[in-house]
Structure formats: C-alpha cells, structure tokens
Amino acid sequence: MRRSFIIFYALIIYALTELVWWGYLLVKLMPSSLAMITGEGSIFILVFSIGAFWLHRSIKRERKLQEQKKNFLLSVTHELKSPLASIKILLQTIQKRTLTKEQAMDFIGKALTDIERLDDLVENMLLASKIDNQSYTFPKDKFNLSVLVDSIVNRLQLTKCDSNQQVIDAEIEPKIQITGDKFALTSVVTNLIENAIKYSGPCEIVNVKLFSKDGRVVLEVADHGVGIADSEKSRIFDRFYRVGSEDTRNTKGTGLGLYIVKEVLDKHEASIKVKDNRPVGSIFEVVFQ
Questions:
Q1: Do 94 and 160 fall within a single domain?
Q2: Residue 284, H or E segment
Q3: Are strands 177-180 and 141-144 parallel, antiparallel or unpaired?
Q4: DSSP state, 230?
C-alpha cells in the first residue's frame, strides 16, 4: 500500500510538471493567447486537483479498511482461542481427575459460560455478515422486552467479586411490550451490556435500566469505565472500529458489536445516543419510538 501512495504522488507531480511545461511552450509560441491558455490551464489544474484529492481519500479509506480487517481477523482468532483453550482445560480436568459432584458441576458451568461466549461471537459475525449483504429481513413480532432484558442480565451477571457482589445492577420496568425482531434485539442488548462490562474495571457496577417515558421505551446501559472521547463518539458505530489504538488497547473485541447495534436499531426506527457518565464512564441510551 505504501508503494501505491508513492506511485500515485509521483504520477500527480509528473502530470502537473508536464502541464506547466506545455503551457509554457504554448505561451512562448503564441504570446497573444496568454489569457486563454492561463484560464484553461487553471480550470484543468483545478479539476485535476479535485480528482486527485478524492482519489487520495478513497485510497486512504481503503488502506484503513484493510488494516481494520486485518485487526479484526487477529481479534477473532484471539476471541476464539481463549474460550476454546479454557473449555479444553476444564474438560481435561474432569476427565483425568476424581472430582466431587460440586466440583464437576462448577467446571461444567464454567465450560458452558465459555460456550455461550463463543455462541455470542458466532451470532455477531453471522448477523453482521447478513446486514452487510442486505440478506436479513428483520421479521417483526410483538414481544415482552422486559423479559428479554431480564434474561440477558441474568445470563451475563457476574458474582465473582467480594461478598458475592453482582456486577450488573438492573432496574427493569415489567410488562414492556414492543414490536420488533426479537433475535436481532437480543444481540443489541447483549452487545451493549457486554461492552459495558468489558470496558469497566474489575467488579465495577454496570447499570441497566428499562422504562417507558412519554409513550416511548427507553433502555439505558451505563458503566463507570474508561469512557469515550468526544472525537470518537461519532465513529464507534462504524464496522470494525474500536476505541483507542491497537498499541494501547487492552480490551478484547472484534469491532462488530456497536456496528450491529446501530444497524439493527436503524431498522427499528430507534435512536441511540452516547453520553458521558459522571464522574467517569459512558451511558448508551436507546429510545424506541
């Protein structure tokens, strides 16, 4: 890609140099046509410069997309290997050691948690691919969003902190009904809560609220993590985009979660806003009309 940029700039410099040279020769041969040659040459240079600028932007955008795809493949590889390695160790331990029933059930529970993590990853990749190819139709039916959010909170709930503390603090108004694609909206809620947990510190509380207000349904997911800079808030819903640089980023992820969230909500005519939490962290606010 670097060679492409060098060739691109070399061609531009060559073309402009040739243009100036031929313009000079024409003026020398026909001094009376100076105004006409200068005017037409200026227009040509202007059009040429605009075309070169947009071509440069396209090449730069393609280069960035290629880098993001490369980072995505590396991230997916890591995301797959980590739970698979954990499941392998857990099953080998059950196979080779004599465990009590409680120990065996604990190991099986941990293995199932890793399998659910793999399942979420695969579902994200499949849904993102279908959205990108415009092959997903988003079938809509009326369902209980309160039950859906509650079940996802319970599945993602962590109780490994001191005093068996629950990491997700949920306030869910009961019996909230909406019409939408239950499968796709499950991915939305899961991605928002998983992101909040991922970008928070160990045992930091994540607040999940579901309520109705002024005839609209509102879902809020708030964390007390690193937060999102204002300059990045408009880009976090882009495909493959992840906050921070590859050199400084410590959290795992593929860059597909928030892309899926935005695309699914757009199909449901719902909005999403990112606000700063106080004193630290972020709040994702989803509003269903």
A1: no
A2: strand 282-288
A3: antiparallel
A4: G
Taking only the tens place, the pLDDT of each residue in 143-192 is 999 999 999 999 888 755 654 556 899 999 999 999 999 999 999 999 99
The number of domains in the chain is 2
Longest dimension (CA), the chain: 102
Radius of gyration of the chain (CA): 27
Of the candidates 199, 242, 240, 250, the one whose C-alpha atom is nearest the C-alpha of residue 222 is 199
- 3-class DSSP assignment, residue 252: coil
Domain stop point among 74, 109, 136: 136
Please report, for the domain that includes residue 226, its CATH number. 3.30.565.10
The structure tokens listed for 253 are 């992820």
Are 201 and 226 within 8 A, CB to CB? no
256 close to 124: Cβ distance less than 8 angstroms: yes
Residue 110's pLDDT is: 87
DSSP notation for 82-117? HHHHHHHHHHHHHHHS---HHHHHHHHHHHHHHHHH
